Prior knowledge:
Chain A has 201 residues and is an alpha+beta fold. Chain A contains 6 helices and 7 strands; from the N terminus they run βαβββααββαβαα.
Amino acid sequence: xxxxxxxxxxxxxxxxxxxxxxxxxxxxxxxxxxxxxxxxxxxxxxxxxxxxxxxxxxxxxxxxxxxxxxxxxxxxxxxxxxxxxxxxxxxxxxxxxxxxxxxxxxxxxxxxxxxxxxxxxxxxxxxxxxxxxxxxxxxxxxxxxxxxxxxxxxxxxxxxxxxxxxxxxxxxxxxxxxxxxxxxxxxxxxxxxxxxxxxxx
Amino acid sequence: xxxxxxxxxxxxxxxxxxxxxxxxxxxxxxxxxxxxxxxxxxxxxxxxxxxxxxxxxxxxxxxxxxxxxxxxxxxxxxxxxxxxxxxxxxxxxxxxxxxxxxxxxxxxxxxxxxxxxxxxxxxxxxxxxxxxxxxxxxxxxxxxxxxxxxxxxxxxxxxxxxxxxxxxxxxxxxxxxxxxxxxxxxx
Lengths: 201, 187
C-alpha cells in the first residue's frame, strides 16, 4: 500500500535536526548510497532494505529526477525478507555435519564447527528462498519539514527512521497525539500539561 | 517523568477527541467550520473500537455497521469504555473522504481520498502530475484532521469546557444507555 493506492495509511514525522544548506547534491549522493541493493550479493541476507522509486520498486536503478518533485522528496523504502523453515535448516545442517564428519574421519565436530556449518547451510538456503517484498512510501515536504510515511506500524516506522537518518543525517521524531495538541495550543503551553482526564461516564 | 511516560499519560486526550467528535457529529449534524474557513460535514462510519483498559486491546469492543452497531458502541461508551479507534467520513467541496482515526497517534489509517484523474479514467494524465495531486490530497486530509484537532483542544483548554462542553458531552454519553434500551436491549 502506498501513496498511489486508492487506500493507504499514513503517519507523520518531523525533522529533529537542521537541514543542510544546498542539500540537493548531498542528498542525491546519499540516496544513491542507500538505494536498495538488487545485487546477487545481497540475496543471502534475511532482511535487506533501501530506497526505490515508488512507481518502479523492481528497477535496479533509481532515477533521481523522479525523487525530487517540486517541494517534495518522494521515495519508497523497500524491505525484502527471506526466511528458511527451521525444520528444513535442521535437516540440511545435519546432512552437512554428517558429510564433514565422514570427510574428517572424526566422530564429533566442535560446537564452533557445527555453528559455522549451520550458517553456511542457512546462507545457501536463503539464496534459494524467494523474498517477501514490501514497499512503504515517504513524501517529504521540504518547506514544512514534515514527512508522510505510508505505514502506521511501530517497527516499520522505526526501521524507516533509521534508514532516513542514515541517508540524510537528520533524526526524525514521530508525532504523537500529545505533540500535535501541544503544538497547536497557543498562549500558555504548560496549561496543556495541567489538563486531567474528564470523567465522561 | 520522561518523554515516553508523558506521552502515555496524555493518551486520554486522543480518546476524548474522538468522543467529542462523535458527540458533535450527533448533536450538530456533523458540520464543522474549520480554522481557515473550510466547512465540512462529517459522519461516523461502520466501525468503532472501544476499550475497557486503554493499555490492553484484549478488553476491546468492536462495533460494526451503522445503526445497531453504533447503538451498541454508544452503550459501551455509557458503560465507561473509551473510544480507541473510529472510522470517519466527511464531505468537503462536494467530495467524500474517509479514514480510520486512532486515538493514540492521530495517524490516518485506511485513508480514502477523492479519486485522482487517472482513477477517473483520464489515462493521458502525466504520472508526475498524478503523484503531485495525490500528495496534495493526503496533505489536505491531514490539514482537515489538524483543523478538527485544533477546534477540540481550544475547547478543551478553555473555560467553557467546564461550563458548557463537559455537561453536554456527559449527558450525550449517558444517553447511550437509553439509546440501546430503546432499540430492544442487548443481543
